[in-house]
Specification:
- Helix content is 10%, strand content 18%.
- Strand 35, helix 4 and strand 36 form a beta-alpha-beta unit.
- It is α/β, with parallel strands linked by helices.
- The N terminus is likely disordered.
- The radius of gyration is 39 Å and the shape is flat.
- The protein has a 24-stranded mixed sheet, with no helix packed on it.
- It starts with 27 loop residues before the first strand and ends in a 6-residue tail after the last helix.
- It has a domain of 194 residues: Leucine-rich repeat, LRR (right-handed beta-alpha superhelix) (Alpha-Beta Horseshoe), CATH 3.80.10.
- Belongs to the LRRC32/LRRC33 family.
């Protein structure tokens, strides 16, 4: 059986007209809840049980969406014989009388989506047959089967755009779209189509856009719709896609086969205009280098195609399925989330116009960079989330990756890159090497290193503006690691000890940086050099997940807008520092997940009222060994904090004074009790004479 399909969310744009009055000026009015603008009447969501009859008879556009009409009677639209566009979306329509459109000979666009037209589909079909000039028809979401759809489309030869999305169509044959020679756009997405008979689309000679996404098609073989430009067969269960062999010229420009179960690279037409190929989320791989295919019989597969009484056999070379495809105009290729372990020699050479290549989330272990592979026009290359351990650079290449602007190598197993790789990428602006166990070359290292790569050098990459080195296990940064770059974005997160207590390694790029991420780096407030005064253009600073106990230092003309201090060891935030940041334009600050002391949060009202603290509802503090949300603290100073805020000298005086008074009283009592014996002892020792 021949199975066919396509992509590109076809937005069916129904006829919209800018109606104006006789003077040429658009007018606006309201009548019975309907908005009138020139020749257009908008009655959406007015709870109308019938079509209003008091609207201007010259109306050319009528919108009745979301009204519980249920039935469209023969007389409902009689007053509006000049209508060119009618929308009845979500009107609970179960019946359309056979003469409902008898007076609408000028109607060009009709929207009947999300109704219940399957209830009386024969009568609805009879009503539609009175519209010989209809160009656009939306029957989506009506629970229509293929037989119902065929009856409704019968004799509507003027149609150019049809939507049958979200129905219950299961199979297609040549009778469904018979007589629609002018049809250019067909939307069949979100049905239950599992079979398309050969010739089902043969009569649609003008068809350009075909959407078969979200169906149950198992394979597409002998694909021969040469007139198509956009084909979407994403979200099916395809295991094979084979275009018709031969020298037929295809107009195909965009092909979406993503989110299927393809096992091999699709067999594409030998001659086409394909510029966008989407193969994301399949099970594809290249296998020639993984198996011993010395016998020619082991390198082919044969397909038996049965169409009526005709049987055809198609032979396909499994290992070089791309070799006969026309990829000369291909500009965008997405092969992400597949099972590719390698790229065959010459694969990328067939795509000289390729500008975007996405290979993330595959099983690539090595990548060979040769002349014209990748092609010189490539501007974006994503190799993230693979198993790359080596990049091989062919010797003598002076201009490889010369046009590359974005290069993503994150989440691989790289220990370094070939010497000179980045030096030749003179236009690169964004580079992501995060989650690779690399090291940075010291300043004294020779630029022409030989042998296996052991470090990476970013110096003198003048075009580089964004660099991510998160989770690379970096040691202390060498001197001037980013000298000669134009960095405005730098991520050094999750590299403990990389700054070694100083921001000095960043001095070359400090004046240019706008976004700096230093989270989870073990920073603490004892770093005397943790001063961001020299980062005059810094807009976004992430210091979360560190060990800071005090607010970082800023100065000068800092233009900071966003500051993240979550998951640190802050107990209080100095009010002076906060007010200074607010005055400099700080818009957002994150402060939660810190062990604040409730007695030290007084005065943060300015932050709360100014909505500067984005996570204010999550900020908690410790009060008498209890964790309390700052927003739930009672007004004023908590009672448990009042003693702590008293003057210490006065507190000591209050504590010492009772003891002193007690001691004085005790001494007085002792003196008075032993006064006479004590005087006698003194006199006897001093030989004083007593006077009697």
């Amino acid at each position: 059986m021949e199975l066919l399909p396509l992509w590109l969310c076809l937005g069916f744009h129904f006829l919209a007209v800018d109606w104006r009055d006789r003077s040429g000026t658009a007018t606006a009015a309201s009548q019975g809840g309907c908005k009138l603008v020139g020749g257009a009447a908008d009655c959406r969501g007015q709870s109308l049980a019938s079509v209003p009859s008091s609207l201007p008879p010259h109306a050319r556009m009528l919108i009745l969406d979301a009204n519980p009409l249920k039935t469209l009677w023969n007389h409902s639209l009689q007053p509006y014989s000049l209508l060119e566009s009618l929308s009845l979306h979500s009107c609970h329509l179960e019946r359309i009388s056979h003469g409902a459109f008898q007076e609408q000979g000028l109607l060009r666009s009709l929207v009947l989506g999300d109704n219940c037209l399957s209830e009386n589909y024969k009568e609805t079909a009879a009503a539609l047959h009175a519209l010989p000039g209809l160009r656009r028809l939306d029957l989506s979401g009506n629970s229509l089967t293929e037989d119902m759809a065929a009856l409704m489309l019968q004799n509507l030869s003027s149609l150019q755009s049809v939507s049958l999305a979200r129905n219950t169509i299961m199979r297609l044959d040549d009778s469904v779209f018979e007589g629609l020679e002018r049809l250019r756009e067909l939307d069949l997405q979100r049905n239950y189509i599992f079979e398309i008979e050969g010739g089902a689309f043969d009569g649609l000679t003008e068809l350009r856009h075909l959407n078969l996404a979200f169906n149950n098609l198992p394979c597409i073989v002998d694909f021969g719709l040469t007139q198509l430009r956009l084909l979407n067969v994403s979200y099916n269960v395809l295991e094979w896609f084979l275009a018709t062999g031969g020298e037929a010229a295809f107009e195909l420009e965009t092909l979406d086969l993503s989110h299927n179960q393809l096992l091999f690279f699709p067999l594409l037409p030998q001659y086409s205009k394909l510029h966008t190929l989407l193969l994301r989320d399949n099970n594809m791989g290249f296998y020639r280098d993984l198996y011993n295919t010395s016998s020619p019989r082991e390198m082919v597969a044969q397909f038996l195609l049965v169409d009526g009484n005709v049987t055809n056999i198609t032979t396909v070379n499994l290992w070089e399925e791309f070799s006969s495809s026309d990829l000369a105009d291909l500009r965008f290729l997405d092969m992400s989330q597949n099972q590719f372990q390698y790229l065959p020699d010459g694969f990328l050479r067939k795509m000289p116009s390729l500008s975007h290549l996405n290979l993330n989330q595959n099983c690539l272990m090595t990548l060979h960079i040769r002349e014209h592979e990748p092609p010189g026009a490539l501007t974006e290359l994503d190799l993230s989330h693979n198993q790359l351990s080596e990049l091989h650079l062919a010797p003598g290449l002076a201009s490889c990756l010369g046009s590359l602007r974005l290069f993503n190598l994150s989440s691989n197993q790289l220990l370094g890159v070939p010497p000179g790789l980045f030096a030749n990428a003179r236009n690169i602006t964004t580079l992501d090497v995060s989650h690779n166990q690399i090291s940075l070359c010291p300043l004294s290292a020779a630029s022409d290193r030989v042998g296996p790569p052991s470090c990476v050098d970013f110096r003198n990459m003048a075009s580089l503006r964004s660099l991510s080195l998160e989770g690379c296990g970096l040691g202390a940064l060498p001197d001037c690691p980013f000298q000669g770059t134009s960095l405005t974005y730098l991520d050094l997160s999750s590299n403990w000890g990389v700054l070694n207590g100083s921001l000095a390694p960043l001095r070359d790029v400090a004046p240019m940086l706008q976004v700096l991420s230093l989270r989870n780096m073990g920073l603490h407030s004892s770093f005397m050099a943790l001063d961001f005064s020299g980062f005059g253009n810094l807009r976004d600073l992430d210091l979360s997940g560190n060990c800071l106990t005090t607010f970082p230092r800023f100065g000068g003309s800092l233009a900071l807008e966003t500051l993240d201090l979550r998951r640190n060891s802050l107990t209080a935030l100095p009010q002076k520092a906060v007010s200074e940041q607010l005055s400099r334009g700080l818009r957002t600050i994150y402060l939660s997940q810190n062990p604040y002391d409730c007695c030290g949060v007084d005065g943060w009202g300015a932050l709360q009222h100014g909505q500067t603290v984005a996570d204010w509802a999550l900020v908690t503090c410790n009060l008498s060994s209890k964790i309390i949300r700052v927003t739930e603290l009672p007004g004023g100073v908590p009672r448990d904090c009042k003693w702590e805020q008293l003057d210490l000298g006065l507190l000591y005086l209050v504590l010492i004074l009772p003891s002193c008074l007690t001691l004085l009283v005790a001494c007085t009592v002792i003196v008075l009790t032993f006064k006479k014996p004590l005087l006698q002892v003194i006199k006897s020792r001093c030989h004083w004479s007593s006077v009697y």
